[in-house]
Amino acid sequence: MPLAFDMDGVLANFNRAALVAHGAEDLWEKDERRGPECWDTPKLLGITPSEFWEPLKDANFWSSLDRYKDGMSMFMYAYMNYDEYIYILTAPYPCAGCYAGKFMWFDKWLRGSLKYGQLVMTSDKYMFATDDSILVDDNSTNCRLWKEAGGHAFLVGRPWNERHFAEDINLPLFRDFMEEKQREFETKRSRQG
Description:
The chain is of the alpha/beta class. The chain has helices spanning 14-21, 41-45, 49-53, 59-63, 69-81, 96-109, 140-148, 170-192; strands spanning 3-5, 86-90, 119-121, 134-137, 152-155. 42% of the residues lie in helices and 10% in strands. A five-stranded parallel sheet has the order 3-2-1-4-5, with helices on both faces.
């Protein structure tokens, strides 16, 4: 059961840092600003995508992202309880600072648990899906595409997706999901021989 964790929005708090870089308030404090229609941060800020990404091009921006406590707890739960290969699949913004900064973030927070080859930067995460793989992501589209490619996906509740109501209970939901998938995969293996 290979596991693929998204970085930004699951392990690293990209959105808070992006808002700070723009001098903006927390866009998702109010209930009416929660849900899948709130995914487009530049639109919510009233700026163009180019304006949004401009102050985020520096490697220091990416390397200094805060960790999500629940995301890191889900990662450690998977790392400690499942003897499987874990990847970090992260979609990069096309600038050198993003690539370098994500690599530095990985080195700072995950290097003790994972090897450098387990960090994969791609926007096409679904290409890694297999019938026994699991994606952990905050992007509904990534989860849908992963499932369509034959894998299994856990959507992490965040203010900008349809599981925003589950933000405070991501870890227990993830544990239940993983236990259920483990049973499914064991049953499948026992039937195969």
